[in-house]
Write a structure and sequence with these properties.
The complex is a heterodimer of chains A (472) and B (257). With 472 residues, chain A is mainly alpha-helical. Chain A has a domain of 251 residues. Chain A contains 19 helices and 2 strands. Chain A is globular. Chain B has 257 residues and is an alpha/beta fold. Chain B has a domain of 178 residues: P-loop containing nucleotide triphosphate hydrolases (Rossmann fold). Helix content of chain B is 32%, strand content 26%. Chain B has 8 helices and 12 strands. Chain B has a 6-stranded mixed sheet, with helices on both faces. In chain B, a hairpin with a 2-residue loop joins strand 4 and strand 5. Classes of the chains: A mainly alpha (472), B alpha/beta (257). Chain B: InterPro entries: AAA+_ATPase, ABC_carbohydrate_import_ATPase, ABC_transporter-like_ATP-bd, P-loop_NTPase. Chain B: GO terms for molecular function: ATP binding. Chain B: It holds the Pfam family ABC_tran. Chain B: This is D-xylose transport system ATP-binding protein.
């Protein structure tokens, strides 16, 4: 094509410089250019995580023990999962302050169903039960109005479960919690996208309201214990068997390698833009080796009293987070819906003119955030074995938003991935766990966590400024 | 002469008591660049928005491809094959060129994206327009220059097989080299057989690429004449006074609104 370039247009280079394959050195240079240009992604969080691990390993003898690391995973899992759902909301530049207490409501409903032997009508009282069902019906109507069929279906399942009065069953109870989460998201979303109230105000109001609902459901000073249910308790405290752990490794790492490599070679074959094979190969190899090592370590007995008790296997929270990560990433990267989420977050007006249904996208992210938050609530309730009136209140939401932002999701919208929430969640869990081991007390823990979040938000803002300046 | 692809006949439009367009006629032929000029407030944007389906006309006729049409919204305009490239360029900074070109009309089955197909089509379109200067079609739009962004926005129209492309001040914010690049592209669009409407304040641009020049004066179409029959001075007179010698409004008094 260069040959055809008319000489009078010498100022214009050629689209022939459009390259589909680069040498590894070029690709690395391009990556460094992007980082310098302000596209940091998860890099600061990963470096921070490494630094924290080194500091805590030096400072505390128990930090880098297998038992503590497994414990750290389970501790951070609930918040991390809520953060994964919040990524969708943050991608639109919106915020969901109510995700924490909304998750508390779902946990309370789940626990109440378990404790009252499936008798939610008795557990809530007639008035509360009727109001609750009424709200669920409203949620279905809202979802139908904006044509979010999945949301309407899930909320309808919650109504069916309540109306049928199903017997206590841990799986049904978890399903109920998730469906209630979906219904809550439908209500939040419709207020924001159709009524047009700013998300900050809607979710601030709902943050308070849901906190009140949790208190109403559980009763002042009460606690609903779920640790008697083997399944509910095992979610965050149980482990896969040793064989199961290796199966998970084969499925997860093998699947990752197969998907990444087949996609890469497919792109190369079709002459599309692709990274150098060497880089893709080494990335896949690194992930496979790292997960093999991690799986092996988890199959070693990590009990503090190895002679009396044996604790082995990968904690259940790992596959739970992996599934959410894979599904979330797939939805954002490979579906029309995900593309539209990024588009609305990047330039709402452009998306609208291109024919994207902006109100539907805006509502749907809140539905996703609340549904995923419900999964998070199952995990954190399982970890402590009970649900109290403070479920999902306090720091839960702030830590979840913090995890997403620390991992590299932009608060300004349009930039972020589900993996950001996982990495950010790991950073926060490490800070909490490490400082806890050093027994410095909650004062220091909160101050340090706050500063870490502040640092992450500053990195976000500064990298945006740099991106503007360098035109990235 | 070829049949017009788009024609306005006696179009009137009022916003409340303000009569913005008076019996406006406009002819857009395929393969030609029709420049739409006029002073601020002459009604250029209203004409474009009426064609794009953003405003509804009060009376008159819009004829597309020989058929009278009613355009109730932007989506219907796009279905007919009318594409508008707005001055503020509706592009998403956080998406790459391919993603922007296909935004709202992504290819793929059942909600899943066919990236390979889209990337290939985008590259072919850009190559067919001899679009240059971009390192990769996977470059994020945020890192493109103003001219390159304009180019992507225009290429989008070609990709979707539009028949008429309306360009609202495409060179307003561009430097010399970039203006050159965009004007070349505008010319190529017409050479590919599209009907191009170019709104511009810049007489140099207009005389360089336009085949016909349509001048609006206070909501009236005072003249639509081939560029070769007009001089720069005449067009400026038409824009500012509504008449120039024998061309334009017969009696200047008529123009008092």
């Amino acid at each position: 094509m260069t040959a055809q370039t008319p000489t009078k247009n010498a100022a214009i280079a050629d689209f022939g410089i459009d390259t589909t394959s680069r040498t590894p050195a070029q690709a690395l240079r391009d990556y460094l250019d992007r980082v310098r240009g302000g596209e940091l992604g998860s890099l600061p969080a990963l470096l921070g995580l490494l630094l924290l691990v080194i500091v805590f390993t030096v400072a505390s003898s128990t930090f880098l023990t297998l038992n503590n690391l497994a414990n750290l995973l389970a501790q951070g899992a609930g918040t991390t999962i809520i953060a994964m759902g919040l990524v969708f909301v943050l991608l639109l530049g919106e915020i969901d302050l109510s995700a924490g207490t909304a998750s508390g409501v779902t946990a309370a409903v789940m626990a109440l169903h378990f404790v009252k032997n499936g008798n939610l009508l008795g557990g809530m009282g007639n008035t509360v039960f009727l109001v609750f069902v009424g709200l669920l019906v409203l949620a279905v109507a809202a979802a139908l109005w904006v044509r979010i069929w999945a949301g309407a279906a899930m909320a309808a399942v919650a109504i069916v479960l309540l109306a049928l009065g199903v017997p206590p069953d841990p799986w049904l109870e978890m399903l109920l919690a998730i469906c209630v989460g979906t219904a809550i998201g439908c209500l939040t979303g419709v207020l924001i996208s159709k009524v047009g109230i700013p998300s900050f105000v809607v979710t601030l109001a709902l943050f308070l309201a849901w906190n009140g609902v949790v208190l109403q459901l559980i009763g002042n000073g009460g606690t609903l214990s779920i640790s008697q249910s083997p399944v509910l308790f095992a979610v965050a405290n149980g482990n896969l068997s040793v064989a199961g752990s290796w199966v998970l490794f084969v499925v997860a790492a093998g699947g990752y390698a197969a998907v990444v490599l087949s996609r890469h070679f497919g792109r190369v074959r079709k002459g599309l833009v692709a990274l150098p094979t060497v880089l893709v190969g080494s990335k896949v190899a690194a992930v496979v080796v790292a997960s093999a090592v991690a799986t092996y370590l988890f199959t070693v007995n990590r009990s503090p009293n190895p002679d009396r008790i044996t604790i082995t296997g990968v904690p259940y929270v790992v596959p739970i987070i992996l599934v959410l990560l894979v599904v979330g990433t797939f939805v954002l990267d490979r579906t029309r819906y995900g593309r539209h989420v990024y588009a609305v977050g990047g330039n709402t007006e452009a998306a609208r003119r291109a024919g994207v249904n902006v109100p539907k996208i805006r509502m749907s992210v809140f539905v996703i955030a609340s549904s995923v938050a419900a999964i998070g609530s199952i995990v954190y309730s399982s970890k402590v074995g009970s649900v109290d009136p403070n479920a999902g209140a306090g720091n839960v939401l702030l830590f979840a938003v913090g995890a997403a932002v620390i991992g590299g999701t932009s608060l300004f919208g349009g930039k972020g991935r589900v993996i950001n929430a996982v990495i950010g969640g790991a950073v926060l869990a490490t800070v909490q766990n490490g400082l806890g081991l050093l027994s410095v007390g909650p004062a220091v823990i909160n101050i340090v966590t706050g500063l870490v979040l502040l640092l992450a938000a500053s990195v976000d803002a500064l990298s945006r400024r740099r991106a503007k300046a360098t035109g990235h | 002469m070829t049949e017009p692809i788009l024609e306005l006949r006696g179009v009137n439009k009022s916003f409340g008591p303000v009569h913005v367009l008076h019996d406006v006629d406009l002819v857009v032929r395929p393969g030609e660049v029709t420049a739409l000029v006029g002073d601020n407030g002459a009604g250029k944007s209203t004409v474009v928005k009426s064609i794009a389906g953003i405003h509804q006309i009060d009376s008159g006729e819009v004829v597309f491809d020989g058929e009278p049409v009613h355009i109730p919204g932007p989506r219907e305009a796009a279905t007919l094959g009318i594409e508008v490239v707005y001055q503020d360029l509706a592009l998403c900074d956080n998406l790459d060129i391919v993603q922007n070109m296909f935004l709202g009309r992504e290819r793929g089955k059942g909600g899943f994206l066919d990236e390979a197909d889209m990337e290939r089509a985008a590259r072919e379109t850009l190559a067919s327009l001899s679009v240059r200067t971009v390192k990769s079609v996977r470059t994020q739009v945020s890192s493109l220059s103003g001219g390159q962004r304009q180019t992507v926005a225009i290429a989008k129209a070609v990709l979707w097989n539009s028949k008429v492309v309306l360009l609202d001040e495409p060179t307003a914010a561009l430097g010399v080299a970039q203006t050159r690049q965009v004007l070349d592209l505008v010319r190529r669009l017409a050479d590919q057989g599209l009907g191009v409407v170019l709104i511009s304040h810049n007489m140099n641009d207009v005389f360089e690429v336009a085949d016909t020049i349509a001048t609006l004066y206070l909501g009236r179409m005072v003249a639509q004449l081939p560029t070769r029959d007009l001089t720069n001075t005449q067009v400026v007179e038409l824009i500012t006074a509504g008449r120039s010698g024998d061309i334009g409004l017969a009696k200047p008094e008529v123009a008092t609104v």
